[in-house]
């Protein structure tokens, strides 16, 4: 494993309140709301509600260096069937187009396949945020065929096309396992020419920089993976490392937090603001509580509507018009070309 979870290390940073306290010490970083005002932009507010993103738990077969969920094999939090059913009832609203399943390794939740099949029966687009190595684990090796049969879109993490860089972030042997998993996905039709099965790869920086231009990086990934391993994929997206959880711990340990936060602020791009994911998404944690995004979820920053903070109290209309809760970590989504669960927000 690349590391132990913060919880297992008994790190103070396992507590979201400690993470927020440290971010608040960065007094050279303007409050995100003040930055919006300086650029004559309105405070963030939801524009619609198209995606229901469900974190099915923090249980994972990997312990990656930059995981903002602090997931791992020693975590046992998983969503139970009662909240799964609440999520599915909410998903039935015609305004929702997409069910976005994440974790941990979402596939390790025993109700993962139920959510996929029920979501497909509703005619929804289903996304599985997959770490790839889970597809080779005992008990999960039939997942490629299942996902293909349900036409699930796979968004798969592959931090780099170089083995050394990927293993440095995800653990020894992770790259070779990821390559085997991608070849399995190609075998069942994912990412290959003339197939409707979409396979998206996800890049996030190994060091302390912002992601490079998404289009150029995709071309490099495609050439490297095709030439060296015969692997095809649909597209690649880039995601900026968010200064929370394990990545925040690394920044603090390396005394790089101030420099990284300054880099995010200096790269603030007002053109990315209208497209940030929180304006069209609602995030559900394993206990059923609601957040504006997956990052706010990990910082325990609930939605701004006290009476609508649990999926059992879901009300589409009020949540689709809610004010978004922001903090200094939000610069991670608006730096450079921007960053979201769908990749860069502002590309040439």
From TrEMBL:
Q: Radical SAM core domain location, by residue? A: 54-192
Which protein is depicted?
Molybdenum cofactor biosynthesis protein A
The UniProt record lists the keyword Ribonucleoprotein: no
In terms of InterPro entries, this protein maps to: Aldolase_TIM, ArsS-like_C, rSAM, rSAM_ArsS-like, rSAM_sf
* Domain Arsenosugar biosynthesis radical SAM protein ArsS-like C-terminal: from-to ranges: 210-344
Q: Which cofactors must be present for this protein to function?
A: [4Fe-4S] cluster
At the top level, the lineage of the source is Bacteria
> Do you know which NCBIfam families this protein is assigned to?
rSAM_SeCys
GO MF term set: catalytic activity; iron-sulfur cluster binding; metal ion binding
């Amino acid at each position: 494993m690349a590391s132990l979870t913060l919880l297992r290390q008994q790190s103070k940073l396992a507590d979201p309140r400690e993470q927020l306290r440290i971010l608040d010490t960065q007094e050279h970083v303007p409050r995100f709301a003040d930055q919006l005002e300086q650029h004559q932009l309105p405070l963030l507010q939801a524009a619609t509600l198209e995606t229901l993103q469900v974190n099915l738990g923090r249980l994972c077969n990997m312990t990656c260096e930059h995981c903002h969920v602090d997931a791992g094999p020693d975590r046992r939090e998983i969503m139970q069937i009662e909240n799964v059913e609440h999520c599915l009832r909410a998903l039935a609203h015609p305004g929702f187009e997409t069910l976005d399943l994440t974790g941990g390794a979402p596939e390790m939740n025993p109700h993962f396949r139920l959510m996929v099949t029920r979501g497909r029966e509703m005619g929804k687009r289903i996304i599985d945020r997959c770490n790839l190595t889970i597809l080779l684990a005992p008990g999960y090796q039939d997942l490629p065929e299942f996902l293909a049969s349900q036409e699930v879109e796979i968004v798969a993490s592959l931090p780099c096309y170089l083995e050394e860089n990927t293993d440095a972030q995800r653990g020894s042997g992770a790259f070779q396992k990821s390559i085997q998993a991608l070849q399995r996905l190609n075998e069942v039709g994912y990412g290959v020419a003339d197939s409707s099965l979409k396979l998206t790869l996800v890049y996030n920086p190994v060091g302390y920089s912002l992601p490079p231009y998404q289009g150029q990086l995709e071309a490099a990934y495609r050439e490297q993976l095709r030439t060296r391993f015969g692997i095809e994929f649909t597209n690649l997206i880039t995601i900026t490392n968010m200064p929370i959880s394990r990545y925040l711990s690394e920044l603090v340990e390396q005394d790089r937090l101030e420099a990284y936060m300054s880099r995010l602020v200096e790269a603030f791009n007002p053109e990315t603001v209208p497209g940030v994911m929180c304006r069209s998404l609602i995030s559900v944690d394993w206990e059923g509580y609601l957040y504006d995004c997956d990052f706010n979820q990990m910082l325990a920053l609930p939605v701004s509507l006290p009476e609508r903070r649990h999926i059992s109290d879901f009300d589409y209309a009020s949540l689709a018009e809610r004010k978004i809760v922001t903090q200094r970590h939000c610069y991670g989504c608006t730096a450079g070309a921007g960053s979201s669960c769908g990749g860069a927000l502002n590309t040439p």
